[in-house]
């Protein structure tokens, strides 16, 4: 597993009856890899993982693994209300042929740090797969500090990367200062890849990649290679869309962008619902204005 580049946190497509559209998943992940993505991350928050049954989660990762045939690793989000549920999912993902795991704190329970550490430890020890720790205190209420990350890295050889979604760009350099090159650090929010790359991030896990992979890959490539002016020009065009990932309706909004580019539908599972019409029209104006000036970028 090489932790670098752009890896989409993929959406989960649903049929009209809210069953999973596996045919689209297969087509979508191949299309993303064809455009230069270096890994696929199913079952995250954007993938509506909290609405999926365990069997559905395993079916999704199997579809991704079978379609990609080793072209890039599949790294599902490992999250559950319980530690036992997360361990079961981690082991099921390993059996399905996944190349790595993205490990989240437990849903809902915002316990003391010793409980969170024990939760992570159980998942890291459940398989031999390389793991990425996902730090998102805004969404999950648990902040995994650089000090705790360094402690976990010392204990667990298969902890090899961190997805940093605190929104504080200083965390990238703080983690690097603590662990050096021992862990790869990924930008974890859509509207931080330019800054994170300059701070030393080696990768970016994001949502708008689902609809615009060529632009996403190009933006990160320019940023990590030091082409500051060209990178920022593309970033400035992209930002109104990237910021759609930073609001509570991010799933509906990203699926709306997918629908606009002809790569997906707006269908979401309850409790999510289609955007109210006024909100949808406002979002469509932003999306269509950006797409009307979309830069021409050759796929990788």
Give a verbal description of the structure.
- The structure is a single chain.
- The chain has a 7-stranded parallel β-sheet.
- α3 links the parallel β2 and β3 (101-103).
- The protein has one domain (5-292): TIM Barrel (Alpha-Beta Barrel).
- By secondary structure, the protein is of the alpha/beta class.
- It is built from 12 helices and 7 strands.
- It is globular and about 50 Å long.
- α8 (193-199) packs parallel to α9 and α11 packs across α12 (277-292).
- The protein has helices spanning 22-34, 54-68, 83-95, 113-124, 137-140, 146-155, 170-179, 193-199, 213-224, 228-242, 250-260, 277-292; strands spanning 5-8, 77-78, 101-103, 131-135, 159-164, 184-187, 203-206.
- It is 46% helix and 9% strand.
H-E order: EHHEHEHEHHEHEHEHHHH
| Annotated CATH homologous superfamily | Aldolase class I
Instruction: State the low-pLDDT regions, or none.
Output: none
If classified by CATH, what would the architecture be?
Alpha-Beta Barrel
In the CATH hierarchy, what is the class? Alpha Beta
Average per-residue pLDDT, rounded, comes to 96
**Tertiary shape:** globular
Number of strands: 7
Oligomer: single chain
Major sheet attributes = 7 strands, parallel
Instruction: Report the CATH topology name.
Output: TIM Barrel
Walk me through the topology:
Layout: E1 5-8, H1 22-34, H2 54-68, E2 77-78, H3 83-95, E3 101-103, H4 113-124, E4 131-135, H5 137-140, H6 146-155, E5 159-164, H7 170-179, E6 184-187, H8 193-199, E7 203-206, H9 213-224, H10 228-242, H11 250-260, H12 277-292
Parallel strand pairs: 1-7, 2-3, 3-4, 4-5, 5-6, 6-7
Helix pairs in contact: 1-2, 3-4, 6-7, 8-9, 9-10, 11-12
């Amino acid at each position: 597993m090489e932790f670098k580049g752009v890896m989409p946190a993929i959406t989960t497509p649903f049929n009209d009856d809210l069953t999973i559209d596996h045919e689209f998943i297969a087509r979508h992940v191949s299309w993303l890899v064809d455009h230069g993505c270096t890994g696929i991350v199913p079952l995250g928050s954007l993938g509506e993982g909290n609405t999926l049954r365990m069997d559905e989660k395993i079916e999704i990762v199997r579809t991704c693994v079978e379609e990609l045939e080793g072209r890039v690793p599949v790294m599902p989000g490992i999250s559950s209300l319980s530690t036992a549920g997360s361990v079961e999912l981690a082991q099921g993902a390993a059996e399905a042929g996944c190349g790595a795991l993205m490990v989240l704190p437990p849903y809902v329970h915002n316990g003391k740090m010793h409980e969170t550490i024990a939760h992570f430890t159980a998942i890291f020890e459940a398989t031999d797969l390389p793991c990425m720790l996902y730090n998102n205190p805004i969404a999950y209420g648990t902040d995994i500090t650089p000090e705790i990350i360094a402690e976990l890295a010392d204990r667990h050889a298969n902890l090899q990367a961190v997805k940093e979604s605190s929104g504080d760009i200083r965390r990238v350099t703080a983690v690097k200062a603590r662990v050096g090159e021992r862990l790869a650090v990924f930008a974890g929010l859509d509207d931080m890849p330019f800054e994170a790359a300059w701070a030393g991030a080696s990768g970016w896990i994001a949502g708008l990649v689902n609809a615009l992979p060529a632009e996403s890959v190009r933006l990160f490539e320019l940023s990590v290679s030091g082409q500051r002016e060209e990178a920022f020009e593309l970033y400035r065009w992209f930002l109104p869309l990237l910021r759609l990932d930073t609001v509570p309706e991010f799933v509906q909004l990203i699926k709306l962008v997918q629908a606009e580019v002809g790569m997906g539908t707006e269908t979401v599972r309850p409790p999510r619902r289609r955007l109210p019409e006024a909100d949808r029209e406002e979002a469509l104006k932003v999306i269509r204005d950006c797409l009307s000036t979309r830069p021409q970028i050759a796929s990788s």
